[in-house]
Structures are given as structure tokens and as C-alpha cells.
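Reopening: C-alpha cells for the adenosine-5'-triphosphate complex, inputs below.
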Amino acid sequence: MATLRFENVYKDYYSDAKIKKRTGKTETYYAVNDLSLECRDGEFVGILGPSGCGKTTALRMVAGLEEITRGSIYISDRKVNGVLPRNRGIGLAFEDYALYPPLTVYDNIAFNLRAKKTPAGEIDAEVKRIASLLKVDNLLDKRPVQLSGGQKQRVNIARAIIRRPQVLLLDEPLSHLDGKMRQALRTEIKRLHHEIRCTTIIVTHDQLEAMSLADRIAVMKDGLLQQFGTAKDVYDDPENEFVAGFIGDPPMNLADVEVVSREDKLMFAFVRGDFKLPVPKSYEPVLHRGERVRLGIRPTELIAEPENGSGEPAIVDVYEDLGDECRISVAQGDGYLSVILEDDRRYRSGEKIKLRAKEEKVLLFSHENGSRIRAAK
Ligand code: ATP
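Re-run output (same inputs, fresh job):
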């Protein structure tokens, strides 16, 4: 077991002078930009972010498959920058399972131990133990071509953990699988982690995967770490507008608003459209009239009521009944405010309603750089 630490890690794929010359690249672009992060011993950490944000690059640097341009990576107290991949004590499972087609499942799982010249009896016991952990013990005689995607991925993970790695690295291990299989294997990975308690990093662009598997999630964008915290931290208490908008499905409503006064009360006036919301008391000390900010409110934190209810007037644009929940959309300029209804009342398109926000759930972000504006304590 081990801790894993990134210390001010940078990756510039074109830092090498020869590559620069060959590609004609002149500007510096950090695929990973000053990443500092510490995973605790036995912790399950998710690296989450949109395509191209640097997730895989970060993982490949831990694995030793990419050179680190600047900074250090430590596994426990050992700096591993120059250490060969096979000597880092890591297990790797990537999205494309890369199993050896001519070998049986048994031989695929046994491969790494045979390469280490482990005695045959030991290999046999280990293969059977790991195969049963991953529920592939009934597939040991089959070849990869005879397996489903989910079974291949289980074998792939079995192969990664048989070396008893200090750190297990999973790169989008579920991305090739269909919905049901994904869900099933996600549960298995969680169970496996409880059993082997190996420090694990999963890279994914699927927030549900990261939120359900990981103890803490590192959200990245453009090579930069945006926030590192529990699922609850990143969902309820986002550090900036990017995290607020990226986490949550359906996404948070985000809109430009201006602070105005109405009958001595401060209001947020939506810049596109004519909707207004009262400024919660806790924000009054940190805002001034005429200020423009970004307002964020989750669809579950807006409350719709019939026209004679309380709140601000709005008009239903679209009503959707999704079976397990009902939503309405209220047009605001060229966008929409989305509301998940708390009751079963049906609304018509064009119906006049009242809308209010759960005040303690209103989030504000800087109009200039998206950083969080916190309410006064
Ligand atoms: P995805 O989810 O699409 O796999 P990612 O978040 O894992 O994306 P990376 O693969 O780490 O992102 O890529 C980060 C940035 O580095 C991207 O801009 C990508 O184009 C660039 N990049 C990745 N690999 C290389 C490479 N071998 N040479 C040059 N640039 C690269």
C-alpha cells in the first residue's frame, strides 16, 4: 500500500528541442499544468474532466509512460521520475483491454507472474484467487475473442492487480461497455477496492463513474486542477463556475445577472430575459448595486408554483414528464432555466407560474474569471 503525490507537475509534449524543431511548435502548452495532489494510502481517487484536459497524461506520468517535464511524482516516499515503469509498483488497466489473443484467460492473467519467474504453484494459486475476486474463474480456459467487453475488462483488471501493485491505475476502464454492463462492473470495481484496499486512480470523463467510485475527485480543465474533494464537495460547494457547470446532470442553471434594487430590496435581474430573484441576505454585504455576477442554481433548487403561489412571475416554455421526474423549462433570452419539479402537478406550455430559489442554494461566481463569490458568514 502507498500514498501517491504529484508535486508541481508539468507536461509539455513539445519541450524536447528535437521535437520542437520537427513539429515547428514554438509556443509552450502544458497538457498538465502545475499539478499538485496527494492520494492517501488506500484511497480511491477519480480524475475527471472533459476530453483533452490532461487526465490521461497525468496517469501516464505516474505509470512512467510519459516523461515528466517539470516537478516530481512520489509513490510513498520514493520519487519515481526516473524509475522504469516495471519498477514503480503499479498496475495498469487501460480502456482498450490489450489482452494477448492467442493466450487463454488463465495465461493472460498469469503472464506478469511468469515474466517475473514466479514458481508455478504460486502462480496457480494467485491466478485462481484473483480470477475469483473478479468473477472470471469460470472463464479461465477461454480466449479473449470468446469474451464479452465486460468480461475482457475484468480479465484486464485481474492482470493489473495480480502483481499486487502499490498503486492501481485505471484509464476509462468502462468506456467501451454498454449501460448495464458499465453499472455492473462499476459495482465490482468498488467491491474489489474494498477487498484489496490498493491506492487507486481512475481517469474518466463520466461524472457518475467518478462520483460513485472515488473517495475524492480531482476535476481538471485545460491541464489545470480546478478542485479536489469528495463528490459532495464538488457538487454542493464548487470552487468555480467550471466545476459548478461540469458536475451535475441536468447541469446547473448559470446566467449573467445584475444586482438592482426594487423597493429597497436587492434583486438579481437576469441580463437575458426579464426574470428576477431576490438577493439572499447573506450575499448583501459582498455585493453592490449595479454589479454583474454569474448566478448558479441547480434545477432541483428552483421551486415552481402555480400563478397564485409565491415567487417571481415566469412562463413555462416546455413541460417534460420523464416518468421518474418532471421538468419545466422557462425561456430566458436565448437560454433556459431548467426546473425539476417537487410535486406531480402538470404544467402547460405558456402557463404563468411563480418561481423561487432555495436561497441557501444560490451560488455566485465572478463575471470576470468564474471564481466563487462566497456569502458572508
Ligand atoms: P481524453 O478524455 O480525450 O482522453 P484527456 O483528458 O485524457 O482526454 P490527454 O490525453 O491527457 O487528455 O491530452 C491532454 C492534451 O495533451 C491534449 O491537448 C492532447 O491533444 C495533448 N496530447 C496528448 N498526447 C499527446 C502527444 N503524444 N503528443 C502531443 N500532444 C499530446
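The two ends are 41 Å apart (CA to CA). Residues 208 and 248 are 9 Å apart (CA to CA). Marking as resolved unless the reporter disagrees.
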